[in-house]
Design brief:
9-stranded parallel β-sheet, 8-stranded parallel β-sheet, globular
Length: 188
């Protein structure tokens, strides 16, 4: 699917397989719903209730995902990659990861969301090189897996830069916190 406009639908693209390139997906209840095994690239996904709901073994590359209630919700299976995307101004969360996946979020700008990255049951294996700034919470991390959270700028988030809701430790060294003050990073 290339260079198309999808506006004012319940599900703009539903239960699909394959690539979506250079599309505008605007003002829908759900932009992409249950998308499997493809590359979603250079798309504008804006002003939907949910921008992308349940990607499964897919890559989201160089997309702008903005002004939705929820930006991207990972599926519960497969390996997904979100890279070089701008994920901003989503009222609930920019990226929500649930399920037992092995996923990656790489080199994205994640800003002005309710929660930048919401890891609530499954964990992304890799969160590297992102700018996670000016959200209410930068990362809400309550999952049970072990992740690599490294080389990110995690700063200037209103409530917490990192909210960690598990027992034990998670390694978040090698990130830039913009301040030496540890009060903005707190275990719940």
């Amino acid at each position: 699917i290339d260079s198309c406009n999808f506006r004012s639908n319940i599900n703009a693209l539903y239960s699909g397989v394959g690539n979506v390139n250079h599309c505008n997906i605007l003002n829908n209840q759900t932009g992409l719903q249950v998308w499997k095994g493809g590359i979603i690239s250079n798309c504008k996904i804006d002003s939907n209730q949910t921008g992308v709901n349940y990607i499964i073994t897919s890559i989201v590359n160089n997309c702008s995902i903005s002004h939705n209630q929820s930006g991207i919700h990972f599926g519960i299976e497969g390996y997904n990659v979100i890279k070089y995307c701008r994920i901003d101004s989503n009222s609930i969360d920019g990226i929500q990861q649930s399920g037992g996946n092995t996923d990656s979020i790489l080199n994205c700008q994640i800003k002005y969301n309710g929660i930048g990255i919401n890891e609530n049951s499954g964990c992304c294996d890799v969160i590297i090189g992102n700018s996670i700034i000016h959200n209410s919470k930068g990362i809400s991390y309550t999952c049970g897996g072990v992740s690599t959270i490294s080389c990110n700028a995690i700063c200037n988030n209103t409530t917490y830069d990192l909210q960690y809701g598990r027992t034990g430790n998670v390694n978040v060294t090698h990130n830039y916190w913009c301040t030496p003050d540890s009060a903005s990073t707190e275990a719940v």
